[in-house]
Amino acid sequence: MVLGLETSCDETAAAVVRDGREALSDVVSTQIEIHRRWGGVVPELASRNHVLQVMPVVDEALERAGVRLRDIDVVAVTSGPGLIGALLVGLQVGKSLAYAAGKPVVGVNHLEGHLLAIRMDEQAPEPPFLGLIVSGGHTSLYAVEDYGRYRLLGATLDDAAGEAFDKVARLLGLPYPGGVEIDRLARTGDPKAIRFPRGLNKRKTNDFSFSGLKTAALYHVQQHGLPQGQALADFCASVQEAIADVVTRKAVAAAKEAGLPRLVLCGGVAANSRIRELAVERGAASGIHVHVPPKRLCTDNGAMIAVAGYETFRRGGGAEGLALNANPSWRL
Ligand code: ATP
Ligand code: MG
Ligand code: FE
User: Fold this and answer.
1) Confidence grade of residue 204 (pLDDT, cut at 50, 70, 90)
2) What is the pLDDT confidence band of residue 201, given thresholds at 50, 70 and 90?
3) Is 153 helix (H, G, I), strand (E, B) or coil?
4) Which residue has its alpha carbon closest to ligand 1 atom 19?
5) What pLDDT, on a 0 to 100 scale, did the predictor assign at position 269?
6) What are the extents of the domains in the chain?
7) In which residues is Fe cation bound (predicted)?
């Protein structure tokens, strides 16, 4: 049984996972309300709130799973990438619990967590597959050749997809996290109302760029003023369409090129309704099977860290023991 801990950004999460894929509990305490008044995540506030939340969250995860600390075989904790102060909170708690229980501790890469979260979904494919990670800090394409064997095929050169959603939302005066608000408002909007740029779309590259979209959104607001009512819905639908268009097109093309018959959507932005819809549609047109996980597996959680920790431990991870350190810019 693995206890997974996640504190890399603004979610304090803990979970108990059996046999590497069965979540017995999965407790997530989000700091969204705390950061909302600042319009984004404030690192120092994140660290302080992880300190307050982490033990209650761990206790609840153990209790809901019906286990004690001594029943845990391995403690898995996100050790990067993420906010350094936030990471250190989970890391110290993870190491302390492991020490107290006399069990090993393994450091997990948050992105590997996102890629392997689907292991908890019975319908999910096994490797090899192409993982599209679209999240608050990342937009990357990974060939998942096997557990522990990941090949980076492309990534964003500037902002992440989630960052693009959140920054445009902030420009429009929408509350954090803006991706969710844009998704909601877009439902009644016309995606063809404004033609926003699709970064690097015409080029034969697996890399992404969202800075042009952000600038175009800013210019549009400067010229036409802040959209209201139907114009706001149209603006949101158009921004969402631009992001969904480029990520799904590139992901399906990369899967074909790499000879991977399956595509898996991962990360918080994979909760976006248009990305989910368009990925399936484009996959079907290109003979690529697209796996769309339930939304709870897309956003940050502790169970995905336990799953990745199980795999990391099986392939010999955890050798650092209590010398394990955080690596805020750890590349998978
Ligand atoms: P990373 O995983 O890169 O370290 P993170 O952990 O902060 O970053 P996640 O929690 O995986 O990121 O995802 C959060 C992001 O997902 C936010 O940018 C948020 O706006 C976005 N998001 C969540 N739901 C939706 C949605 N329905 N549509 C668009 N974006 C969404
Ligand atoms: Mg988050
Ligand atoms: Fe994440």
Assistant:
1) confident
2) confident
3) strand
4) 179
5) 98
6) 2-115+298-323, 126-292
7) 110, 114, 300
What's the gap in Å between 224 CA and the centre of ligand 3? Answer: 34
- What's the rounded Cα separation, in Å, for the pair 131 and 87? 24
Q: Average pLDDT in the 29-37 region? A: 94
Residue nearest to atom 3 of ligand 1 (CA): 137
In this predicted structure, the answer to whether residue 64 has a pLDDT above a threshold of 90 is yes
The response to whether residue 177 sits with its C-beta less than 6 Å from ligand 1 reads yes
Are the folds of 2-115+298-323 and 126-292 the same?
Answer: yes
pTM, two decimals, is 0.96
Residues with CB under 5 A from ligand 2 (ion): 9-11, 300
For ligand 1, atom 28, the nearest C-alpha belongs to 272
Q: How far is the CA of 13 from the centre of ligand 3 (A)?
A: 11
Contacts of 307 (CB under 8 A, 6+ apart): 2, 4, 17, 20, 21, 113, 116, 117, 119, 120
Ligand nearest to the CA of 35: 2
DSSP string for residues in 313-325? HHTT--TTGGG--
CATH superfamily of 2-115+298-323: ATPase, nucleotide binding domain (3.30.420.40)
